[in-house]
Amino acid sequence: MSQSLLERQDQDGVARLTLARPHAYNSLSLELMQALHAELDRIADDISIRCVVIRGAGKGFCAGHDLKQMLGEGEEAYYRCTFETCSKLMQRIVSLPVPVIAQVHGVATAAGCQLVASADLAVAAEDTRFATPGVNIGLFCSTPMVALSRAVQPKHAMELLLTGDLIDAERALAMGLINQAVPGDALEASVTVLAEKIASKSRKALQIGKQAFYRQREMSLADAYAYCSEVMVGNMLTDDAQEGIDAFINKRAPQWQHR
């Protein structure tokens, strides 16, 4: 992990990943996306981590792709590499075995908005602004559209994509893009409460549930029930499920083994 691009802090089962390009509103350079993907790969194998928080340093969460870098390169192969890297990063967030929370402040635009939409949960400061403004510069936000169209209703997604307009956190909350809009001075504490609540659970149960959530969503109703029934059978056979049920019956705190 490059300390100049990404910072990681672990505490109480929560890994906090800070995008560290504040001079560029944490825009997603190719190198930053690669660093973030590599760190998520490490977290996937780290049994001590049960929740991830992604946040940005400085005045904003993330302003999208680094357009200066992209324009400076100016080659099709570089553009292809950039968008493929971004797509793989967003899919890694979804496939990560533990939940990911976006801690959002300032701005979350274009691929930054995509990052919010890709996270499992999102908490934003009330003065945050969101947009997919690519249409304003002749570059439609097609890859952000993938995450956005899965996070909010189609007409809300199309409104953001077609107008390029900024929306506030209250509107983002109403759309379902974020889970909470809180005062700026309460953002850190609000995310910490949520992350620590999740981190207190069985990592095995979190992994099973997150994976099943995204898989069943693309299935028919009957197929989803058949699949999730099998998932619950497998979950029931895990050590943590047996421990959790016994702890509940005997009114004691469970001792997770994360298996």
From TrEMBL:
Gene Ontology terms, MF aspect: enoyl-CoA hydratase activity
Keyword terms, alphabetized: Fatty acid metabolism, Lipid metabolism, Lyase
A Pfam family the protein falls into: ECH_1
CDD domains in UniProt: crotonase-like
Keyword Lyase: yes
Enzyme Commission number(s) of this protein: 4.2.1.17
Family annotation (InterPro entries): Enoyl-CoA_hydra/iso, Mitochondrial_ECH-domain
UniProt-recorded name of the protein: Enoyl-CoA hydratase
Organism of derivation: Marinobacterium weihaiense
Species classification: Bacteria, Pseudomonadati, Pseudomonadota, Gammaproteobacteria, Oceanospirillales
